[in-house]
Write a structure and sequence with these properties.
Blueprint lengths: L2 H15 L3 E6 L1 H4 L7 E8 L11 H5 L3 E4 L6 E5 L5 E6 L5 H9 L2 H14 L3 E3 L2 E4 L2 E3 L4 H7 L13
Helix pairs in contact: 4-5, 4-6
Length: 162
């Protein structure tokens, strides 16, 4: 899908989800401003919500879209939006926002070859959406924190195409 069309859909989805989130941003190829977009990626810190009989909050919005995978509550769910494009929705917490947002901005090759190899080289390991070193969980609240942790200059999203 053309970038401009995908951006409009992503902004609409973000607007629908925002009242149910502490924080929410568009990531992926839209954030990198790629001319062609295959899916919409959003990272969110949801407010507390219920599922099942007493469904509330973000679940009311997300569960109206066709599920491909990931039953709420979860760290990731994929849905098909009414416009026919896939939505990859990633859930983060305050202490791992920067890590999840950076990884989900991509590109996949950039995240794998640059970021992941960078933290392995520095002695970190990744588990459950967090970085650890010497058994201690490290908070990565902002993307800039991740780059500093890896002794790397911050790279603008549009330049993260590896």
């Amino acid at each position: 899908m053309e970038y401009s069309k995908a951006l409009i859909i992503a902004q609409k989805v973000k607007q629908q989800l925002a009242p149910h989130c502490e924080r929410i941003e568009i990531a992926g190829s839209i954030r990198r401003k790629k001319p062609e977009v295959k899916d919409i990626e959003i990272v969110a810190i949801p407010k507390p919500y219920d599922v099942g009989l007493f469904e509330s909050g973000i679940a009311l919005v997300v569960n109206q879209w066709e599920k491909v995978k990931g039953e709420l509550p979860c760290k990731y769910t994929q849905r098909i939006l009414p416009e026919g494009i896939k939505l990859d929705l990633f859930f983060a917490e305050w202490d791992n926002w920067g890590l999840i947002y950076a990884l989900r901005t991509g590109s996949a090759d950039y995240s794998h070859h640059i970021l992941a190899s960078g933290w392995v080289f520095q002695g970190f390991r990744s588990e459950g959406g967090y970085l650890y070193i010497d058994g201690q969980r490290i908070a990565v609240r902002e993307e800039e924190d991740l780059f500093k942790l890896l002794y790397m200059p911050f790279v603008e999203p549009e330049k993260r195409n590896y």
